[in-house]
Amino acid sequence: MEMFSGGQLEHKVMQKTGCLDYSSTEWELVGRNIYKRQISYKFDKALSRYGGEASTTQQKYTLVNQDGWAIEEVMTLQGVLLGDYFNLQLKYYMANIPSKPNTCNVQVLLGIAWLKSTKQQKKVT
């Protein structure tokens, strides 16, 4: 979970993946065992010819019947071709593996939520 702590490791990884001006708010308790934060960054033009920016909202909570966390993220893109037509939705499931110390299982799911219809929908998906 250190990768999602808002600390030095998170900033270093995001910088190496081409995210510029990366900033995140602190995790805020919003419900029983549910935390929320905001993230924003710009895309390095070396990786995305259009540049652009991302704004995300993340919620995290502990997994039921497992030693781990789930993080749900909704990403909004600005300055990206057709970016105002959809949101990206990501879910990260991270669970410790009891038989292997300092080891965890990570599962990442990606989805697209369409806000408006476009002829390019199939191509983007």
TrEMBL record:
InterPro entries: At1g03370/At5g50170-like, VASt. PROSITE patterns: VAST. The keyword Electron transport does not apply. It holds the Pfam family VASt. Its main location: membrane. Keywords: Membrane. It is found in: Membrane. The keyword Cell division does not apply. GO terms for cellular component: membrane. This is VASt domain-containing protein. Residues 1-125 form the VASt domain.
